[in-house]
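Task: sequence design from structure.
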């Protein structure tokens, strides 16, 4: 199983680039930018990575993001993640970034974009990793702030592939951003939203009906609503599930309690993702491994999850057929029958 997971070409669809900021890089960037940190050492920072819920994580995540100041910082951060993709055979990645976290501190929007785009181009050149870039609005901030961010993003729309919604979910329902998302769709860009991570299944319905999302990020609370499960199975609207994130943020008690297997067997287009791998104890391969161990998934189910990733991605149809064939080939070599 270990070699099957390693050899399968994998796709990642739920990855916050700021969530790949490893403690070592926090220290290196703080030094470079003359920022004083409240932790005495890398180990002290790493030992603070014990979370009780989403907000306890977000507090540290936004605090650490303050070391990201220049295009070069965003380049280094993103290239380090892409190198990891190369090592783990992640062939395509769709990356979230949170510009408001940076522009609120006075970092120009263009610094963020230039660093990210240069690294994505370099990842394509060096390792043939294809990518998409998704701008996330912070839902704990106002609609007005989201409008302002959309205005800043307009000169860059040809390099952005979609818009998303993240940050603290409780009390910030998708409908708070219905008008901004309608404008994004008018501009011709697809939208996604975090929903049903800590928030209720009703927020998943809202994301579908009010925001007209192309995917739901997380969405695990769909298990509370049989009607929603049926709708998701019928439409195959994808869920980008993040198992280690759910464990570390106490969305599930243990990996054996994770609903992934139930969702998969119910016919939903569920995909495996790492969310904020520097904080949650592992990158994409570790998430596959944790699921297999916790839920006793079969090799066939692992292959199905990889295929779902391709189906749920925004790659071209040609690229999708190519990677499906590659996955089927690896599956056959491991004795996994027709899927
Ligand atoms: N949920 C909401 N916002 C986030 C997350 C998450 O898992 N990770 C980074 N921002
Ligand atoms: Zn997320």
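Answer:
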């Amino acid at each position: 199983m270990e070699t099957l997971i390693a050899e399968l070409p994998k796709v990642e669809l739920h990855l916050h680039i700021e969530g790949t900021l490893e403690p070592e890089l926090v220290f290196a960037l703080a030094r470079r930018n003359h920022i004083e940190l409240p932790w005495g050492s890398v180990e002290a920072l790493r030992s603070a990575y014990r979370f009780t819920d989403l907000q306890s994580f977000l507090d540290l995540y936004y605090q650490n993001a303050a070391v990201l100041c220049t295009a070069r910082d965003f380049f280094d951060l993103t290239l380090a993640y892409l190198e990891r993709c190369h090592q783990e055979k992640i062939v395509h990645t769709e990356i979230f970034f949170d510009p408001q976290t940076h522009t609120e501190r006075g970092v120009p929007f263009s610094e963020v974009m230039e660093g990210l785009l240069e690294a994505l181009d370099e990842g394509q050149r060096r390792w043939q990793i294809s990518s998409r870039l998704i701008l996330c609005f912070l839902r704990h901030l106002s609609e007005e702030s989201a409008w302002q961010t959309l205005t800043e993003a307009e000169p860059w729309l040809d390099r952005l592939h979609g818009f998303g919604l993240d940050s603290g979910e409780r009390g910030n329902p998708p409908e708070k951003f219905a008008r901004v998302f309608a404008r994004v769709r008018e501009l011709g860009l697809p939208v996604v939203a975090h929903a049903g991570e800590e928030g209720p299944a009703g927020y998943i319905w809202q994301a579908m009906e009010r925001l007209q999302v192309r995917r739901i990020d997380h969405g695990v609370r769909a298990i509370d609503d049989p009607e929603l499960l049926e709708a998701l199975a019928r439409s195959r609207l994808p869920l980008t599930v993040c198992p280690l994130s759910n464990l570390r943020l106490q969305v599930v008690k243990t990996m054996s309690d994770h609903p992934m297997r139930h969702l998969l067997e119910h016919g939903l287009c569920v995909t495996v993702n790492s969310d904020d791998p520097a904080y949650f104890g592992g990158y994409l391969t570790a998430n596959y491994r944790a699921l297999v161990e916790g839920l006793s998934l079969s090799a066939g189910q692992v292959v199905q999850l990889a295929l779902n990733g391709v189906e749920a991605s925004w790659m071209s149809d040609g690229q999708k057929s190519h990677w499906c064939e590659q996955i089927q080939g690896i599956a056959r070599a491991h004795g996994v029958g027709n899927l």
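Strands lie at 10-16, 90-97, 130-138, 162-166, 192-195, 215-218, 239-241, 270-272.
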